[in-house]
Write a structure and sequence with these properties.
The protein has 14 helices and two strands. The N terminus is likely disordered. It is globular and about 55 Å long. The protein is mainly alpha-helical. It has one domain. Strands 1-2 form a two-stranded antiparallel ribbon. GO terms for molecular function: peptidoglycan lytic transglycosylase activity. It comes from Methylobacterium bullatum.
Amino acid sequence: MTRRGYKGAIAAALGALACMAGTAQAAQCGNTASGFEAWKTQFAQEAKGRASAASLAALMETSYSGATISADRGQKSFRLTLDQFLAKRGGPTIVARGRKLKQTNAALFDSIEQRYGVPAGPLLAIWGMETGFGAVRGNINTLSAVATLAYDCRRSDFFTDQLYAALTLVDRGILNSGTRGAAHGEVGHTQFLPKNVLTYGTGGSLDSIPNALNATANFLKGHGWKAGAGYQPGEPNFAAIQGWNAATVYQKAIAQLGRQIDGQ
């Protein structure tokens, strides 16, 4: 090979590597709405073969959710003391309503406990804390919320996984382009992120009360819940409650409200 030919081969090889690197480059995250539309197009190109054309079409209908970003930047209630947190969340009301629901839905809670080992108290505490027993499930477009957070640079990797899960749920008919929920993409009575719906959902929409409560018990069991063991701080099942939410004050609130609902 001549020297000129050798240099030409090197140049061609370097050019091919550059093209490969460009192809492998991830969609560019951003911290303002201005880059969201370009990011969607890049993401959709990368997702071909991993997500269906129908789910990607639903993704392309999403819009940047300023409400999601505001909520993501403004989470302050977890800095409260336990008493302050319970007062803000309406702890006594949750207990009173939870006890009534435990009685009126006794057969459902008995079947859940037999299957997963989780008693009614912590499930009702979670349900009450998350949505006021289904009264407030959120009104933000779910796919837009998850896509916005996948685009946002703060936690892009985590929410990219959630977005792929959401696209799978679109294919399964559990989510669609019109589904609405909480600010971070949580859906249903107990506010599951898409990946948790895939992992712990027991079939169908979590806007169904039995589906949501079974999925919640399945989540706790999947995080180590042992039938018959205690769930207060320092007891074996408190670790499963810790899996539900990373905030210590939230964990303690679930344990305390659950104990009171269960009459302990």
